[in-house]
Amino acid sequence: MDTGDLGLPVPVPSTALFTDQYEFTMLQAALRGGTADRRSVFEVFTRRLPEGRRYGVVAGTGRVLDAIENFRFEEKVLRFLRSHGVVDGPTLDWLADYRFRGDVYGYPEGEVYFPGSPIMRVEGTFAECVLLETVILSILNHDSAVAAAASRMAVAAGGRPLVEMGARRTHELAAVAASRAAYLGGFASTSDLAAGFRYGIPTVGTSAHAFTLLHDTERDAFTAQVKSLGSGTTLLVDTYDVAEAVRTAVEVAGPGLGAVRIDSGDLLLVAHRVRQQLDDLGATDTRIVVTSDLDEYAIASLAAAPVDSYGVGTRLVTGSGHPTSSMVYKLVARADGDGPDAPMRSVAKKSTGGKTSIGGAKWAARPRDAAGVAEAERIGTGPVPEELAGVTLQVPLVRGGETVGREPLDAARDRHRRALAGLPMSATQLSRGEPVLPTEYV
Amino acid sequence: MDTGDLGLPVPVPSTALFTDQYEFTMLQAALRGGTADRRSVFEVFTRRLPEGRRYGVVAGTGRVLDAIENFRFEEKVLRFLRSHGVVDGPTLDWLADYRFRGDVYGYPEGEVYFPGSPIMRVEGTFAECVLLETVILSILNHDSAVAAAASRMAVAAGGRPLVEMGARRTHELAAVAASRAAYLGGFASTSDLAAGFRYGIPTVGTSAHAFTLLHDTERDAFTAQVKSLGSGTTLLVDTYDVAEAVRTAVEVAGPGLGAVRIDSGDLLLVAHRVRQQLDDLGATDTRIVVTSDLDEYAIASLAAAPVDSYGVGTRLVTGSGHPTSSMVYKLVARADGDGPDAPMRSVAKKSTGGKTSIGGAKWAARPRDAAGVAEAERIGTGPVPEELAGVTLQVPLVRGGETVGREPLDAARDRHRRALAGLPMSATQLSRGEPVLPTEYV
Fold it and tell me: Where does the Nicotinate phosphoribosyltransferase N-terminal domain lie (chains A, B) (predicted)?
């Protein structure tokens, strides 16, 4: 067990308290009432995409697997639950031995999803599954929101590389997970060293306005930076006057200057002027990086500008207007009785106020047309129809408590690129619209 | 040093990698260029409040103090920086000995703020201060966003208690900080056990729809819950038919039933009906808890409804539309030369595209009228005018590297209540408007 696998720059021994209290009180009541061991199926899904979005992106699966493995109750956690009267003695004894021994299936990480897609399915006893609700949802809701924004930004950027630089705009550990999700969604690198440390994501960064302001002149600052980081570095040129800074930058670093960064102003206009100036100065290979309050729309609007890469912060880590994914974790089936051979029964809350749930453990499949383009998100219960057997979406992630679905982050990143390429072309329109695939219940 | 003080349910040894790479490359260039030891003043402020908001809430200060104390470079972090070529050997040697030895002043936690308020000021050498940018901003931007939403919700709720239950809608560790910020902003309790464990915030929770669905009948579920948790528990009554559930609930628990929870439907209408039904059944002391997609506006709209408490999730932890606070960390003054006696010089980036900064270390004061109501947020550089000496806002937080501003979370919570009470009455209007105090530069 690698406890470093929690999205943290340092190991954390347990995820067991990333849990809402009601999961423990339900556990206690079920243990006492004799229903705790009923075989149960919980599903993660979302009733809708954020308004106007055409697809969602599954992200966080790898972190969920780590969180389940590390969901254990050490003595100090048990002591807290005891001293605060959260649960009774028999429940504490049960928790002391807890480890998840059930099965988890789900959409592989990086896959796209639509309203109703059974993104993850957790099977086991009621007791062992009910405890995982909050930690699973926290991870998937956060990471998927960031990945969806990242994916749209990567589409908008065409082939130009994107740098994630939003750590300062979100919780310090959410930032690490956000870097991971951004990379999965198509970003090339991050400014966040904790993300580099933890996930091996390439890190970048050179200087801020403070560095220029520290020096008596801009020339002094550029000279110090080039001396330290070489002429391939990126010089920030908008502290005072951009044109003067570009001239100074090329004088100091030579025409081999790596890049200039523009962090304010009318980026379209300024980028054109800076490109012209750089070319006139012979710095034809010097790249232009822009980094000012970008989102997918701003990135798209710069498509015709001579920009070589984008740095994105706030709007990325806050999901570009949708900082969470509205995924829920619902009991959809459970044993109809207490014996080990009791048949399974589909269950669902009665629909009110739009909170629709459909009972039963679900499969999902995405058939394609002759050109290989996805046609629909088909969802059903019971056996998978034969014609869909080759295009089902869920894969085993945990079997009998053993993680079987772990994979490198790059595998999820590659999968996302393929999944997106397999959708109808309108998937990548930035404009508001309906989900690009209809959800069809079979 | 209590490394548990990081908002984590478990200790974390270091916060040194919650840092953007450019802070390290600036450090290296400044060390090599001889400017690293220039005395510097950095300030945290925001150029504007989220659109329509009338005040901001300072939150996260306590977590910042912990993060600064724990900003140290252990061997494995240095190894990472070395192996990834982030910085050179002399810089690594410098980092190995790093601890912050400067001073920090700031608005005390729970205080309100306005555009331009110098929320935090960090003084020391350029080298020691520049490294703290990202971790300070991450914490303040996140926590203040949640606290501001919480404060508005608490205002909307009048005296009725609010429960924070948004863990599932945000990153699992952001959730712990969000609970803390919500409590500071006026929430009474949380569902998040990690927040209870870490910060001693009261925790609550009883059951979800899954518990009802687990049982063969709703009556079985209620019976099991009451048997386990007592008749003072909260029964969830909207899994099937609310009226039938309320009848069953009182039959099972008796008229001493603690509360019923409604999680869907037209809450105003349903709450009235349920109250009438409970009263008719003699359960006149049974409380009504509502918990369905609430925000400050929905809470306000239920003011006349017979609701006893509110549970709030998504909209709270995502800052009710504003998940971050746009605070920045800017160099505003630095030594004009390299000697220890060099005079300080105000510095600022040239304004373009609305990114205004005002140079110089700032004081802030909030004078009051005869009735004790705040009149303005007055900000200046240089000595504090005599008439404002009694109403300045900043307090010492760190002196010579030693934390001096630590306080219990309840102190910040009380301060917030007092700060809000001292603002003009229009501060608590939910409708969009201008900041309730004008920012005046003296």
Answer: 17-141
